[in-house]
Amino acid sequence: MKLFGTAGIRGTLWEKVTPDLALNVGRALGTYIRKGKVAVARDGRTSSIMLENALVSGLLSSGMEVIQFGLIPTPTLAWGTNRYGDAGVMITASHNPPTDNGIKVFNGDGTEFYLEQEAELERIIFSGEYKKVDWDGIRKVRQRDIVDEYIGTVLDFVDHETSLKVLYDGANGAGSVVAPYLLREMGAKVISINAHIDGHFPGRKPEPRYDNIAYLGNLVRELGVDLAIAQDGDADRIAVFDEKGNYIDEDTLIALFAKLYVEEHGGGVIVTSINTGSRIDEVVENGGGRVYRVPLGQPHDGIKKYNAIFAAEPWKFIHPRFGLWIDSFVTMGLLIKLIDERGKPLSEIIREEIPTYYLTKKNVKCPDRYKKTVLEVARHVLEEKLRSEIKEILTISGFRFNLKDGSWVLVRPSGTEPKIRVVVEGPTEKKRDELFELAYNTVRRAVEEAMKKKE
């Protein structure tokens, strides 16, 4: 698709994301759903209100009634759409830099638009076949503040009071209007940083990768908190540090929740993305459950296909019993509840319950026009060399070999950059290093050979 990527439309302001585009997305959405109420919200980026107004104009021109929720996190918009709308739109670029913005579209049940729906919106936009209403068909715009109602619903779902001490880093993003208040309502002692909304993101880069939030480890130790929670610009992502100041990697956090859910259900299906690790499979299978993997950006498709009890990709968690959208606020509430109910610090819970694997990832530069050839060559070479060890081959987002000892090799093209990503994990550092050397060098040589042939 030309407009939609793995998480809606996203890109640099004026180069890809413009008021004209927002206007046309509004017109296309109104044309697609024909009638009803559309919930609209925005994050704190400097360009978001401009794009929101253009989007609302497009919706009105096609006869939609609009409910504006104002500046709120993406999970809150999804919840509000499920409660009050027939569709929803969030103006956000999530964790992208402040120069960017984007548009994410939701169904009335709070799920993100599926691939076929996004394709239909693109078709309408490029065809210009918009529904238009006359002056007397233009509906109303209503404003509604749903933050307190949303916090109350999360509190009811989590159903837990705590006395933990929590450090919260809001990235100067939209989560700052919910997270500190939610945590305090749970009884937590909250220390907030970067919790005033600023579209320039002066506190830190909005993506909660370790290199952007490593300073939280020292703050945890200095302040003596029980955990630290960091969010991204629109608060759908969540990253965590334990009470010792250790960053909890994404796969470990997914495995912790996956284990919790299969224990509660006595099994069940867990959906996760193609780039996640074997510790998830191990804890789920030990609990009588099964793991299915889907492409990045499609956990909601996986829930629909496999009737999953939990779905996640790095930093993003969906709790279907609460709602069919990524929700970091439910995640933080349930994590605090888990720590209290286990009666142990987070580091100890992880050490006792989650197995250790060793992961390495690195990118190989590759022009987009060579990616298909490189993937074909690399797969053939690696499949020949690893044939006796391969347990399963997955061919979504490139290819992934799951090996019999729990190791795995993933080679996938970047969807946004001229790179091929190589990810390897093993049960020992030695096995990981051996596999990574083989996989990385295979991809690198395949790129070199492809470029020589084209010269």
Automatic annotation (TrEMBL):
Highest taxon, organism lineage: Archaea
Cofactor field: Mg(2+)
Domain Alpha-D-phosphohexomutase alpha/beta/alpha: 2-129, 148-245, 249-357
Ranges where the Alpha-D-phosphohexomutase C-terminal domain occurs: 363-436
UniProt entry keywords in alphabetical sequence: Isomerase, Magnesium, Metal-binding, Phosphoprotein
GO molecular function terms listed in the Swiss-Prot or TrEMBL record: magnesium ion binding; phosphoglucosamine mutase activity; phosphomannomutase activity
Secretion signal span: none
UniProt family annotation: Belongs to the phosphohexose mutase family.
UniProt-recorded name of the protein: Phosphopentomutase
